[in-house]
Amino acid sequence: MAAVFPAWVMVTVLLLEAVVVKGGFPTSLQLERRVPLASHELELSRLRERDRVRHGRLLQSSGGVVDFPVQGTYDPFLVGLYYTKIQIGSPPKDFYVQIDTGSDVLWIGCNSCNGCPQSSGLQIQLNLYDPGSSTTSSPVPCSDQRCSAGIQSSDSGCSGQSNQCSYTFQYGDGSGTSGYYVSDLLHFNTILEGSMTTNSTASIMFGCSMLQTGDLTKSDRAVDGIFGFGQQSLSVISQLSSQGITPRVFSHCLKGNNGGGGILVLGEILEPNIVYTPLVPSQPHYNLDLRSISVGGQVLSIDPSVFSTSTNQGTIVDSGTTLAYLADEAYNAFVSAITNTVSQSVRPVLSKGNQCYLITSSVTDIFPQVSLNFAGGASMILYAQDYLVQQNSIGGAAVWCIGFQKIQGQGITILGDLVLKDKIFVYDLANQRIGWTNYDYLLERMESNFGYTNLYVKNFEKDVTEETLLEKFSVFGTITSLVISKDYNGVSKGFGFVNFEKHEDAFKAKEAMRGAQLGSKVLYVARAQKKGERQLLLQLKYQGSNLYVKHINDGVDEEKLKEYFKQCGTVTSVRIMRTEKGISRGFGFVCFSMRQEALRAIQILNGVLFHGKPLYVAMAQTREERKRLFQSAFRHPFTNVEGLQGPFNPTITPPYPYAAAAAAAYHNRLLFPMYIPG
């Protein structure tokens, strides 16, 4: 459960047991999730019920509780939450806490707590915090400025007799917690440079829960407490920032695949593709100014007042919400636009009040792209999996339902995990803005599946010996072989290989030694790859993201072509094929960072006039792929297609002049034209 950020990260990271994130920097909190986000085994009614309970808590401080339409009587705790492990006290002790961007305060259950669960269905060890057993713990008195800040937010109070700063959080679903504030040490690692870290501590104020009621007493998905990441002064991110330890920035990336989980980073991610929109000022949560919604490039006709940012209205970003929610008018227009777009390709059906579709091919190829358009010009691009939830199948057809739900009469839009997943989200509190960019976990998942043990080490001095490397790397585990590459004179080439007995040891060594100083140089350490692995990873990286483009005007160069195509996403490379004299041959290739962006370019730009010529845009194919397609097509040239005689339906114009290949493409549900040279 990890991510490899495609950019340098400057962070301070909260760690317990020096948590190392597999495949990424050792600078992030590992997030666990009880169940996958969009499992077809979880009906939408269950997810709605869980969110209804959640929103009772989330919106309490905004002046009211939203009552969502609920169907059925399903257990809301069958769905997931994100949690992580932190370390508090002297000596330090482990606590599991839920990550919550919808609240501000960190609180954990304390000894003598009434109603605190003793066990958890998450299969984690619950602990109670004991102020008396920590030598650095102290109660927060009424005179403390932090207590005054809590009182101003109406969540805190002060007892004149005990001189203790206390709190009570009463949630809209009937549950609650109360206790008093204490101050103690939070343990974390600070990144210096490269992958080098130093152990650090900071004194923070947090809640010591003495009473829990309602659903907080249940053991089904119990954790030790809640880690609030709101923007008020009592949040840990604000406290660390006020001490000069971290900037007022944090980020998360939630995995959308069946493994769930993700990462959370304290600090700034310098990623050039992140787009930002301002936070709405003077709001208790992360409220954004949503201006419009587009489906398939067409702006929906929705009264702008629906997205008003006035009191008790607006758009809230919340990692604790499972689905996503729209106000009445926006929801109806959204669902109608989706259904009208796909009604010729799928069968729309209603399932328990939800708009669903029976699908026999890929949703990515059929369903339109959605754009949420925010103030400042930032757009959040949603693909099919970002607004659909897969349910059970019927007669061999998959059932996909609209994951956005309706909020009646509230004027509120809530963006939950359905939308937030597979994106890097940056909460820049210092500049009062939120940013995002898409992130693809595919390559990371494939890299981790190889389970490597061999490391490639380079950039060391020529006088470094095998004995020196053995001394540096053997602290991480048993080494089976170590070799430095040398020339024919026996002089070191400055690189070599270290092979461990176990993958876990190789991973720890890679993370710790990458960027470490050895003599006057900084080491580069990476997993050593066999040729076949490198080829497979490169193939996976660019599979479905490379486009073939023809009918390019002779006056168009690579820069103009890139500028035109980047409206569909991040263009990583552009190449126009030329003669030996440098004259354009009228075709070339455009590669995107993600498959979804490439599909969007096909959908939007294929057939569009560009400098006087209609572009032909299709997925690029390797020679082997073209060969397989032709062999398959001509081996059975008269295969029926969908019950029709002949190689293709005479009323259908094939995308290229090869009838048999067209039949094969149609039969295999290739809804986009594929590059076949003609």
UniProtKB/TrEMBL annotation:
Its main location: membrane. PROSITE patterns: PEPTIDASE_A1 (PS51767), RRM (PS50102). Residues 82-437 form the Peptidase A1 domain. InterPro entries: Aspartic_peptidase_A1, Nucleotide-bd_a/b_plait_sf, Pepsin-like_plant, PEPTIDASE_A1, Peptidase_aspartic_dom_sf, RBD_domain_sf, RRM_dom, TAXi_C. One of its GO terms (biological process) is proteolysis. It holds the Pfam family TAXi_N. The keyword Oxidoreductase does not apply. The keyword RNA-binding applies. It is found in: Membrane. Belongs to the peptidase A1 family. This is Peptidase A1. It comes from Corchorus capsularis.
